């Protein structure tokens, strides 16, 4: 039953590749025509051996001597012209299929729900787009085209040898089924080994993604040798899988070569007997032998390609698993209000691990914010502050309770529209290896340079940007390393100014800054004497903060402990209560 299931799955994967071929069917037809011509001319080269030996080397015909070499050159010339055409057209089809698949896989990954993305290591996803896609590329561009060409060549050459000597051809071809069974068994082993290899390749990519991006941390703790040792262990495992695949490939071709050698030996014996005893011409014999030798080359190639095909099917199965994942739900069709007047969180419960039962990460959260108000959420690390900020733009869904904008549940809004109405400034500074302007415009396409400059000025970022070598066109290198922490945060705040959404979420926006940078960012957020237009003005602002100096200007402060709101009120009110908030403040002032 298991073998039957595997075969069905293999066929299903190959069938799913067919729709990707259809848009390029004309090129595929041209490739097949070219393959057919190449195969027919290969058969003609085998057939021409008979007059070559009979009429030149035996009867010594001068006319044949002049004609046949010219004919051989012409056949090779035409054959190679069509070989190039076949190579070009099938390569074009293969590359287009892979380009489409790569685009679809990346698109599917980008549309994964955040909850799903958190469960799959980044390195594994990168391996799917790079390693797995490259295997499919090899299968489509090389293996499939070679299979088609080899099958056509086998058909033509089989027709030639049966035409020349039916009995002798039947005696040779009877050995073919003997080769099929072990090749099939080796193919299944290749499939399993390929799957294991791809899994291990994902582990290597995951490791590289984690360590290379954190090399400064590795060096800071003098852990270079440990990381080298860990990588060598992964590399050794990958080596073992590759060597297992090498052994399988190495066994396949020699076995087919052995069958081919036995067939040639049979031909030499039977054919020689016919020449000696029954008047069979040497030309006919050598022509037949040449055709059989040419025939075993595509047979040998097919046996080798079977392993590559199995690798491609394994990679395709993993790629289609990604494509079959459900994207984020688009939500309802209710338009998001142009003016957002209120944000309410009512009786909200949430758990990351849905199997924990009543052990929620957030419990009975109730928050209400009106336009123009600032609500701050504070508490010890791990209390659930960031989780609340991620529920508002629907990165996650609550287990119970609701979040409302203007009294409408956010699940009724289209997801894209909802997120357009929210500006999210994370504690993790995400800058792309693009220009400063690109990074500020991100999320607000089509804005003019004047708009970008205005947003940068409001974020107190214009002065340091103008001092950069190319101003707003300066390229931010990987992870924004040419900028300080405060400068990077101000670019994110400029991005939020430019987007100008009705709801603003600031998740630990000043957590890693020095006091001077923090002061500038607070001026950008809440306004100053020089620039009263703070980012939070006339918006619904939710500030997640560990540093309490950032939240003193908030209209309401919610203190979170173990997923529950245990205190709420203004800064002055909470100081008077002498509870957790005052304790937190006292610890920060020590």
Describe the protein.
The protein folds into 2 domains: 14-323, Up-down Bundle (ABC transporter transmembrane region fold); 371-382 and 424-589, Rossmann fold, CATH 3.40.50. 63% of the residues lie in helices and 10% in strands. The protein has helices at 2-21, 25-47, 49-58, 62-110, 114-117, 122-164, 166-173, 176-212, 215-220, 224-277, 282-323, 385-391, 415-420, 436-441, 449-458, 462-466, 485-499, 515-526, 571-577, 580-589, and strands spanning 342-350, 362-370, 374-379, 400-405, 408-409, 422-425, 503-507, 540-544, 556-561, 564-569. A hairpin with a 2-residue loop joins strand 4 and strand 5 (408-409). 33% of the residues are buried.
Rg from C-alpha positions? 35 Å
| Number of helical elements | 20
CATH architecture heading of the largest domain = Up-down Bundle
Q: Strands of the biggest beta sheet: in what spatial order?
A: 6-7-8-3-9-10
Order of helices and strands: HHHHHHHHHHHEEEHEEHEHHHHEHEEEHH
Number of domains: 2
| Beta-strand share of residues | 5-15%
Mean pLDDT: 77
DSSP strand count: 10
CATH superfamily grouping of the largest domain: ABC transporter type 1, transmembrane domain
Overall spatial form: elongated
Low-confidence stretches: 1-5
Name the structural class.
alpha/beta
CATH class of the largest domain: Mainly Alpha
Task: List its traits.
590 residues; ABC transporter transmembrane region fold; disordered N terminus; 6-stranded mixed β-sheet; alpha/beta; 2 domains; elongated; 10% strand; Rossmann fold
């Amino acid at each position: 039953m298991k073998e039957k299931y595997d075969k069905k799955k293999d066929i299903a994967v190959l069938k799913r590749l067919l729709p990707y071929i259809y848009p390029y069917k004309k090129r595929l037809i041209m490739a097949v025509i070219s393959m057919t011509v190449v195969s027919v001319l290969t058969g003609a080269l085998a057939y021409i051996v008979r007059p070559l030996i009979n009429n030149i080397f035996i009867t010594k015909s001068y006319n044949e001597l002049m004609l046949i070499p010219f004919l051989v050159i012409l056949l090779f010339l035409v054959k190679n012209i069509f070989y190039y055409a076949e190579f070009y057209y099938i390569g074009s089809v293969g590359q287009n299929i892979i380009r489409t698949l790569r685009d679809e896989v990346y698109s599917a990954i980008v549309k994964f729900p955040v909850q799903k993305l958190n469960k799959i290591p980044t390195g594994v996803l990168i391996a799917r787009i790079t390693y797995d896609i490259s295997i499919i590329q090899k299968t489509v561009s090389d293996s499939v085209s070679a299979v088609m060409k080899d099958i056509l060549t086998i058909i033509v050459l089989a027709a030639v040898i049966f035409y020349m000597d039916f009995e002798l051809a039947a005696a040779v071809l009877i050995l073919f089924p003997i080769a099929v069974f072990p090749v099939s068994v080796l193919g299944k082993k290749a499939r399993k080994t390929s799957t294991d290899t791809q899994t291990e390749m994902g582990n290597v990519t995951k490791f590289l993604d984690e360590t290379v991006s954190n090399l400064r941390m590795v060096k800071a703790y003098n852990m270079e040798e440990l990381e080298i040792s860990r990588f060598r262990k992964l590399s050794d495992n990958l080596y073992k899988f590759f060597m297992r695949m090498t052994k399988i490939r190495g066994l396949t071709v020699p076995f087919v070569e052995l069958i081919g050698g036995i067939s040639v030996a049979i031909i030499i014996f039977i054919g020689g007997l016919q020449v000696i005893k029954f008047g069979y011409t040497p030309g006919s014999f050598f022509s037949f032998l040449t055709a059989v030798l040419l025939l075993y080359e595509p047979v040998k190639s097919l046996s080798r390609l079977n392993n590559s095909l199995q690798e491609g099917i394994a990679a395709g199965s993993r790629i289609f698993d990604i494509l079959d994942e459900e994207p984020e739900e688009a939500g309802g069709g209710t338009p998001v209000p142009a003016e957002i007047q209120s944000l309410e969180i009512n009786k909200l419960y949430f758990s990351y691990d849905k199997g924990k039962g009543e052990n929620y990460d957030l419990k009975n959260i109730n928050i209400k914010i009106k336009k123009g108000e600032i609500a701050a959420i504070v508490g010890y690390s791990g209390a659930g502050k960031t989780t609340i900020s991620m529920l508002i733009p629907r990165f996650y869904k609550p287990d119970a309770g609701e979040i409302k904008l203007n009294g409408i549940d956010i699940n009724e809004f289209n997801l894209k529209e909802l997120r357009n109405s929210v500006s999210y400034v994370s504690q993790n500074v995400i800058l792309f290896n693009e220009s400063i302007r690109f990074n500020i415009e991100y999320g607000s396409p089509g804005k003019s340079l004047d708009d970008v400059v205005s947003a940068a000025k409001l974020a107190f970022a214009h002065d340091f940007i103008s001092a950069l070598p190319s101003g707003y066109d300066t390229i931010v290198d990987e992870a924004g390393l040419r900028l300080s922490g405060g400068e990077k945060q101000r670019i994110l705040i400029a991005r939020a100014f430019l987007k100008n959404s009705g709801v603003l979420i600031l998740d630990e926006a000043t957590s890693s800054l020095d006091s001077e940078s923090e002061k500038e960012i607070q001026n950008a957020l809440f306004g100053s004497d020089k620039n009263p237009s703070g980012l939070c003005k006339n918006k619904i602002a939710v500030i997640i903060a560990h540093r309490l100096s950032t939240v003193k200007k908030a209209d309401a402060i919610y203190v979170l402990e173990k997923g529950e709101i245990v205190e709420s009120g203004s800064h002055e009110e909470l100081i008077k209560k002498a509870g957790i908030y005052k304790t937190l403040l006292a610890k920060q002032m020590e």
